[in-house]
Each structure stands twice: as structure tokens, then as C-alpha cells.
């Protein structure tokens, strides 16, 4: 895989994780309310706005709509970037392996940092097995492509 293919595939994984995050905020009232509280505290400390009591109760629907729109935009970025990764890859599996692995790793970091989720040994073991399986599939496709080139 060319360096640009790796770059685009890793970014596609980042956008996939971000789309999942914005989708979570769009779908869940409590998560959107939490995000509104975080944003309002930031605005308060920066001096830009002085939120009143009930600020987020009145605006949580607006936050959810904004997160839905952002989810659509991030998905557009994801597919554009993934298409570029496919263009710069020797095979589609290369782009899929890197995109899937980076998506899973970034999702794990986001879930631990933002939501204080604990990911146990079973989850990390599953991640390692998925990445290992994707690497095996990729290695097999590379060997098959080399055999096909020799027989031509």
C-alpha cells in the first residue's frame, strides 16, 4: 500500500469513529444533554456566553439535530476518504484492514476518555483477534495476487 493509501484509510477510521460518536449524541437525549452541559461550561469559562439555569433543558433538541447533521457530514467525509484509500491501495482489503483497525482503536479511546467506559480483557482480546484476522485475510490476498501475476 502506498503511504497515501495508509493515510486515507487511517483517516477513514477516524471519521467512522467520529460518526459513531456524533450518532450517539444525536440518538440519546441524556448524552446530548451531557454534551450541552460541557459546551455551556466551556462557553461560561471562556466568557463568550453566560448560560442561565435550564440552558441545556431548552436546547437539547437543537443539540441533537446539530449532531444528526454532523453525523451526515462526517459520514460524507468518511466515504470520500475511504474512496481515496481504495484508489491508493493495491487491493480493497488493505484499505479495509487499516480503516477497521483504526476505527476500533479510536472508538476504544473515545469511549474511555469521554464516557469513562471500562473495556475489559475480553473486549481488547476481541480487538486483537479482529485485527489479526484482518491481517491474515490481507496476507492471503497479497499471496494470491502474487501467484496470479506469476501465471500471466
From TrEMBL:
<dbReference type="InterPro" id="IPR039632">
    <property type="entry name" value="TMEM42"/>
</dbReference>
<feature type="transmembrane region" description="Helical">
    <location>
        <begin position="121"/>
        <end position="142"/>
    </location>
</feature>
<feature type="transmembrane region" description="Helical">
    <location>
        <begin position="61"/>
        <end position="81"/>
    </location>
</feature>
<protein>
    <submittedName>
        <fullName>Transmembrane protein 42</fullName>
    </submittedName>
</protein>
<feature type="transmembrane region" description="Helical">
    <location>
        <begin position="93"/>
        <end position="115"/>
    </location>
</feature>
<dbReference type="InterPro" id="IPR037185">
    <property type="entry name" value="EmrE-like"/>
</dbReference>
<keyword id="KW-1133">Transmembrane helix</keyword>
<keyword id="KW-0812">Transmembrane</keyword>
<keyword id="KW-0472">Membrane</keyword>
Amino acid at each position: 500500500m502506498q503511504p497515501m493509501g495508509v493515510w486515507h484509510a487511517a483517516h477513514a477510521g477516524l471519521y467512522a469513529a467520529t460518526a459513531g460518536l456524533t450518532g450517539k449524541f444525536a440518538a440519546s437525549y441524556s448524552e446530548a444533554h451531557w454534551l450541552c452541559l460541557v459546551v455551556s461550561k466551556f462557553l461560561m469559562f471562556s466568557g463568550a456566553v453566560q448560560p442561565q439555569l435550564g440552558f441545556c433543558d431548552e436546547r437539547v433538541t437543537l443539540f441533537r439535530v446539530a449532531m444528526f447533521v454532523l453525523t451526515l457530514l462526517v459520514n460524507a467525509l468518511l466515504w470520500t476518504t475511504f474512496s481515496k484509500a481504495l484508489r491508493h491501495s493495491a487491493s480493497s482489503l488493505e484499505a479495509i484492514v487499516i480503516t477497521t483497525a483504526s476505527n476500533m482503536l479510536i472508538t476504544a479511546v473515545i469511549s474511555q476518555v469521554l464516557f469513562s467506559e471500562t473495556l475489559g480483557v475480553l473486549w481488547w482480546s476481541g480487538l486483537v483477534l479482529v485485527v489479526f484476522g484482518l491481517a491474515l485475510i490481507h496476507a492471503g490476498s497479497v499471496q494470491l495476487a502474487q501467484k496470479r501475476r506469476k501465471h500471466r
